[in-house]
């Protein structure tokens, strides 16, 4: 918080998140069904995930391992023993009428995550992170003859509803933050960082539909309640009426939903009305939130111990399960080891795949060249096309070859980026083919030297001007040499060669 004197009547936004992350395991959390997403509806089901009477859950060790990795990455406390509870509620996507989740002994407690927003480093406390099962997925549909995708609609307009239990039982980790955020933009930056860390851990697939789902809680608190260190008394937080916005599935969506909610609540309070404590739904298309229901209270869920799952001893898992180098550590190492700027190091560690590729290139060629090629050229061109590096994961050896062509001076850097790389991304061709087709191979040194001599002999006036100190003359001569070599010589080299010969 900036230490601005609070005026009476000023309001501050207070935001806390519940982030649901699908953990990448081959099978579900309590049964052996596949978690694969692109399957026919209701084909990856069994008596356990359908909640048939008498079926018993068996905990997936892989899900626990993934949770422990998250715990280590956010520096959380992992207790001696963790237990599972039943959270009881009725909804068609939940065939058992309860969700197996964790309650008073979650697998992770009291963690932190550091992130940067507008150049400032910020830290958020993670209150808890627990394991639970994902419910099935529901789709409301209108009658019609067209493809079902185009008939999916809101519940109000639907003629019927379909339930797919393939998702039921997919392992989830719910990560709950303290209400430490003060602005929607911080939330976006935090989510970006969280996703980066999860991806580095190799337990999360950001490209998977619905792999990250956010519930965002927001309340408005009088500015005079904020202490100098930015903290707010627990009692004040407890008393403030908050809304919980559900159905957010992207970083941008979270920022948008919260910005809407912030101004909605502010207007209510300023006009003397009260904010209802309620659950609201984010409408991505309209960018607004609408009331769904009054907020459930904990007692509504009738939590009790899941008797079919024994308590799990996890204290020593923390020691035995390794985690890879995380983005912050890798960024610092890149700065030291390769002498990169903060900005370049940040870009190059933004995803594990980018960082790995940079290290591959830097292992073969000069690190500065590798940084320019990966951070500026490759990421720049991908970004321009709204593409991620994952889209060309199987073509990175071609990009490596392109860097080789530049490093070994076979083509100019300008041609490599502006012609070869762009055409690789746009037309899918490989670098050698493009170089051949476009005739981009650099002219060899003898040919350039001959063109330099020729240009000097053929243009005595320009040579005269050069000796008279006229600045434009050298550029004219460079142009002549470039023409003779069909544009494939390096203009900087030509300039030097000309000067050397003229000054001799
Ligand atoms: N005054 C407040 N303003 C905004 N957010 C708050 C405030 N007080 C608490 N929060 C946030 O609300 C969230 C509470 O999540 P938690 O899962 O513990 O409870 P819940 O939302 O009541 O339960 P459920 O899991 O059933 O949705 C946390 O992210 C916390 O930071
Ligand atoms: Mg909640
Ligand atoms: Mg919750």
From TrEMBL:
Family according to the record: Belongs to the GatB/GatE family. GatB subfamily.
Biological processes per GO annotation: translation
Highest rank taxon of the organism: Archaea
Gene3D superfamilies to which the protein is assigned, alphabetical: 1.10.10.410, GatB domain, N-terminal subdomain
Protein name: Aspartyl/glutamyl-tRNA(Asn/Gln) amidotransferase subunit B
Keyword Ligase: yes
Subunit and partners: Heterotrimer of A, B and C subunits.
Annotated EC: 6.3.5.-
Span of domain Asn/Gln amidotransferase: 356-502
Organism: Halorientalis brevis
HAMAP family the record matches: GatB
GO molecular function: ATP binding; glutaminyl-tRNA synthase (glutamine-hydrolyzing) activity
InterPro entries noted in UniProt: Asn/Gln-tRNA_amidoTrfase_suB/E (IPR017959), Asn/Gln-tRNA_Trfase_suB/E_cat (IPR006075), Asn/Gln_amidotransferase (IPR018027), Asn/Gln_tRNA_amidoTrase-B-like (IPR003789), GatB (IPR004413), GatB_C_1 (IPR042114), GatB_Yqey_C_2 (IPR023168), Gln-tRNA_amidoTrfase_suB_CS (IPR017958)
Lineage of the species this protein comes from: Archaea, Methanobacteriati, Methanobacteriota, Stenosarchaea group, Halobacteria
Keywords: ATP-binding, Ligase, Nucleotide-binding, Protein biosynthesis
Catalyzed reactions per annotation: L-glutamyl-tRNA(Gln) + L-glutamine + ATP + H2O = L-glutaminyl-tRNA(Gln) + L-glutamate + ADP + phosphate + H(+); L-aspartyl-tRNA(Asn) + L-glutamine + ATP + H2O = L-asparaginyl-tRNA(Asn) + L-glutamate + ADP + phosphate + 2 H(+)
